[in-house]
Amino acid sequence: MIDHTIGTARVRFPSSIPIVTEIVSLADVTAPEIPAALGARIKGGVISIGNFDGVHRGHASLLKQTVGLATEIGGPSIACLFDPHPITILRPELAPKRLTSVAERARRMKQLGVDFLVVCETSSKLLGLTATEFYSALVVDALMCRGMVEV
């Protein structure tokens, strides 16, 4: 049974996932194309969703919790971010300057033990989804997550 609670869900899932932070780009979360080569390796783990620009101490703490829970349940640890930053589309004049590239964020996440970085391409379609639609399509259906770490 998949546990869809928000927070630090404690569900057992036997598996052994190597720590190899891989970037997975998704152009459309409502019809995600998870590369076949990843197969089940990216499914059944723990996810944390955010911008993670800079991967500062606060992000590191959140991601370490994600990795810890993923290790405990035996699934992959997954960070998910949006690129470009949603404000770039919603209010371009207020768009923040990027602190780090997606590749640099992935490098820093690898140092923290994160297995996968899912990059959702920000678009009007994505921004038009309700929270439930986004959560159901990506977290439940595509990644089959068994836990989530958020603040």
Describe it for me?
The chain is of the alpha/beta class and 151 residues long. The chain has a single domain (22-148), classed as Rossmann fold, CATH 3.40.50. 32% of the residues lie in helices and 16% in strands. It is built from 5 helices and 5 strands, in the order ββαβααβααβ. The protein has helices spanning 57-73, 87-90, 102-112, 124-127, 131-142, and strands at residues 22-26, 46-49, 77-83, 116-121, 147-148. A 5-stranded parallel sheet has the order 1-4-3-2-5. β2 (46-49), α1 (57-73) and β3 form a beta-alpha-beta unit. The longest helix is centred in the middle third of the chain and has 17 residues, at 57-73. The relative contact order is 0.29. The model is unreliable at 1-20 (pLDDT under 50).
